[in-house]
Amino acid sequence: MERALYVHIPFCLKKCLYCDFYSITDLTLQDCYIDVLLKEIKEIEDKELKSIFIGGGTPTVLSKYNLERLLKNLSRFDFKEFTVEANPGTLNEEKLLLLKDYGVNRLSIGLQAVQDNLLKRLGRIHNFNDFLNNYEMARKIGFKNINVDLMFNIPEQSIDDWMDTLNKIVDLNPEHISIYSLILEEGTVFYDYYQKGELSISDDEIDRQMYHYAVEFLKSYGYEHYEISNFAKKGFECIHNLTYWNEEEYYGVGASAHSFIDSYRYANASDIKEYITSRYLKREKIYISKEEQMQEFMILGLRKIKGISKKDFKNRFNVDIIEVYGDKISKLLRQGLVFDNGEFISLTSKGLDVANQVFLVFL
Ligand SMILES: C[S@@+](CC[C@H](N)C(=O)[O-])C[C@H]1O[C@@H](n2cnc3c(N)ncnc32)[C@H](O)[C@@H]1O
Ligand code: SF4
């Protein structure tokens, strides 16, 4: 069976003020980290993969030496899609050529916004021009599948700023665009500011206005809206992330990474020092019952705009979706939050706005 592989690189040059993904800024640990990571990857060297995703953190912050030994190791697998997350300001021609040479065929670049004052507000290390230089260099080197991450409802971001961001990005014609509403995560600098009343976040109405504007705008430029936050040109949907939304199996290697194999979820040590000293072996193993898997299938599946295939549910769990969730689905249908076209159950436009509440119904 072909599975997906996620590789976590927990290093960043500087922590962005809103981010709670696991990463540290002490780059001196990278040699030991990659030593252990390569040993963990060796454990699955005989497995079949459909996709590899090196995420972070900021994978492109690794030294050329470490990036090369990681890529060399991973390039031995057969895969359809190989993505690397890259942060503008950490890419150069040498690193891009290295990625290309070892078979990376998809780049995911975190831009967030085109206004330098907003990038500064977010604590990003780059400006818009750095992004443009990296993007153009990547195209010149031959990357034909590029995703750009954008954020909306950033403090002090006006609707005009958001429209300008979307306009400037579609002009570049990337194959894929992800749009994320800023989430105030506990433990981040932004969360502290907010608690102290030093950060103003727009209300839900503005957030939704920005979201709906983006959906219509991106569709009008030929992007298919295929997941709540994701848009792709035809044939460029992210194979790796679809694995999660289809609740299929994946390996996750590196500090804080998770795997889902044969009904078990494995959680690696989340602290990099613990990951290194335990030689990756300190892992939590949790059994995911059939009932829990059905819940996850619903919650993750409804993230896809196409929705959940009734046939896929039956094939996977050997029971009819209506038999398990008939009452809940009927209620959501009456509330106009989901739509049933006979084959698929999907969120309506109204349901998309309150997606988290709909997901809770299945828990
Ligand atoms: C974890 S980052 C990794 C990519 C890379 N380090 C970067 O920042 O460009 C992936 C994406 O998650 C999004 N993200 C991170 N924290 C977020 C938050 N609190 N709210 C919304 N989006 C967030 C950003 O758009 C970011 O580009
Ligand atoms: S958003 Fe990206 S660059 Fe910023 S701290 Fe998070 S992982 Fe690092």
UniProtKB/TrEMBL annotation:
Domain Radical SAM core stretches: 1-224
GO molecular function, one term: coproporphyrinogen oxidase activity
Nuclease among keywords: no
Superkingdom of the organism of origin: Bacteria
Annotated InterPro entries: Aldolase_TIM (IPR013785), Coproporphyrinogen-III_oxidase (IPR034505), Elp3/MiaA/NifB-like_rSAM (IPR006638), HemN_C (IPR010723), HemW-like (IPR004559), rSAM (IPR007197), rSAM_sf (IPR058240)
UniProt-listed Pfam families: HemN_C, Radical_SAM
SUPFAM superfamilies to which the protein is assigned, alphabetical: Radical SAM enzymes (SSF102114)
PROSITE patterns xref list: RADICAL_SAM
SMART domains listed in its UniProt record: Elp3 (SM00729)
One biological process term in Gene Ontology: porphyrin-containing compound biosynthetic process
Subcellular location, record wording: Cytoplasm
Keyword terms: 4Fe-4S, Chaperone, Cytoplasm, Heme, Iron, Iron-sulfur, Metal-binding, S-adenosyl-L-methionine
GO CC annotation terms, alphabetical: cytoplasm
Family as reported in the entry's similarity comment: Belongs to the anaerobic coproporphyrinogen-III oxidase family. HemW subfamily.
Functional description taken from the UniProt entry: Probably acts as a heme chaperone, transferring heme to an unknown acceptor. Binds one molecule of heme per monomer, possibly covalently. Binds 1 [4Fe-4S] cluster. The cluster is coordinated with 3 cysteines and an exchangeable S-adenosyl-L-methionine.
Protein's UniProt name: Heme chaperone HemW
